[in-house]
Write the structure tokens for this entry.
Amino acid sequence: MPKLKTNKGAAKRFKVTAKGKVKASSAFSNHILTKKSSKRKRQLRKGSVLDPVNTKKVKAMLPHA
């Protein structure tokens, strides 16, 4: 049986919580920030928990998490 390899791109973008949920940070928060309102930028700082469908896909890419 070959080794299970972690998808390093996914490992840098997602974290798995102790209960098995997957956390991700918000997109659209890195550049072209001048046209975005302060409220929008503040809300983009918060991360989010992925829905069950995408959680399953991400966990397949993170076999050791």
The longest strand covers residues 14-16. The chain has a mean pLDDT of 95.
